[in-house]
Amino acid sequence: MNAIIPHLISALPLDAVLGLGATGSASLADDARVVGELDLRFQEAVKRNDADAMAEIFHQDVVLVVGSGKVFTREDMLNEARSGAMVYEQQDEEAASQTVRVWGDTAVVTAKLWIKGTENGKPFDRKIWFSDTYVRTDRGWRYFFAQSTSVLADA
């Protein structure tokens, strides 16, 4: 990923990234751009353990399901960010791996993510594929559901 993109996105007003000012006539391309930018902004918030920014992007009922099948709630994810147990050196989408698909008021972002850092002082370094689902609400696009899995060797 171009290192400048997250900085440009984080400089945009959150209302613009959430799609708040958009009329009902937004095109699929506009919606895909907004959601793609919002997902990059979310990844940056996770990297910084910025629970406030994450909470603004999250839908009230958001859940994350990881490869083991474990489910994390909104509060689980926000509490983890607040704890500072995860320290990220990398939390970045692989360049050109992001795809955004929009169907009406639902959008799904898929991308390959490189995460590297420490968790409670123990190092980790892995790549994962994720699908982040966003829904359009009266408050703009919100992160509703996520699923991630480790990158597996080609079969």
What are the key terms here?
alpha+beta; 7 strands
Tell me about this structure:
The protein has 155 residues and is of the alpha+beta class. 32% of the residues lie in helices and 42% in strands. The protein contains 5 helices and 7 strands. It has helices spanning 4-11, 14-18, 28-47, 51-57, 74-83, and strands at residues 58-65, 71-73, 86-93, 99-103, 106-119, 122-137, 140-150. The two termini are 26 Å apart.
What general outline do the C-alpha atoms trace?
globular
Number of helices: 5
Instruction: Give the helix/strand class.
Output: alpha+beta
CA(first)-CA(last) distance: 26 Å
Per-chain topology:
Layout: H1 4-11, H2 14-18, H3 28-47, H4 51-57, E1 58-65, E2 71-73, H5 74-83, E3 86-93, E4 99-103, E5 106-119, E6 122-137, E7 140-150
Parallel strand pairs: 1-7
Antiparallel strand pairs: 1-2, 3-5, 4-5, 5-6, 6-7
Quick structural overview:
This protein is of the alpha+beta class and 155 residues long. The chain has helices at 4-11, 14-18, 28-47, 51-57, 74-83, and strands at residues 58-65, 71-73, 86-93, 99-103, 106-119, 122-137, 140-150. The protein is built from five helices and seven strands.
